[in-house]
């Protein structure tokens, strides 16, 4: 597992190999795409995950990023990706994976709630015949 985007300031051979693999994947899936289907209901979904100290033993121990966890989330509107984010957590989770998961959930909800309120307001204001699930 190589995270090449984090090392643009000091790339190594392994990062170049990872970028080449990404380019080969993108070239091989150029005809693929996102399929958006019509829906009668607005369904707002949020998925989140965390990786507890995922770079431990993969990076030098003196780097604080080697023990940081990574949190990610994706928010979908009727199955279509609307917002997504993946980042190293600003603080170090000391206890467990559950702590990292909780932190990731907190970040996801901070993004989800304003979007939910905005969509509800738009549906009400525009008098759209949709229901929020």
Top keywords for this entry?
133 residues, alpha+beta, 2 helices, 34% helix, flat
Strand fraction equals: 15-25%
Low-confidence segments: none
Cα distance, first to last residue? 37 Å
**SSE string, helices as H and strands as E:** HEEEH
In DSSP terms, counting alpha (H) and pi (I) runs of 4 or more, how many helices?
2
Please tell me the overall pLDDT.
78
Radius of gyration: 19 Å
| Structural class by SSE content | alpha+beta
Task: Tell me roughly what share of residues is in helical segments.
Answer: 25-40%
- Which sheet architecture does the biggest sheet show? 3 strands, antiparallel
List strands and helices in order, with pairings.
Blueprint: H1 13-28, E1 44-51, E2 70-77, E3 80-88, H2 97-125
Antiparallel strand pairs: 1-2, 2-3
Walkthrough of the structure:
- This protein is an alpha+beta fold.
- The chain has two helices and three strands; from the N terminus they run H-E-E-E-H.
- Strands 1-2-3 form a three-stranded antiparallel β-sheet, covered by helices on one side.
- The radius of gyration is 19 Å and the shape is flat.
- The chain starts with 12 loop residues before the first helix and ends in an 8-residue tail after the last helix.
- The mean pLDDT is 78.
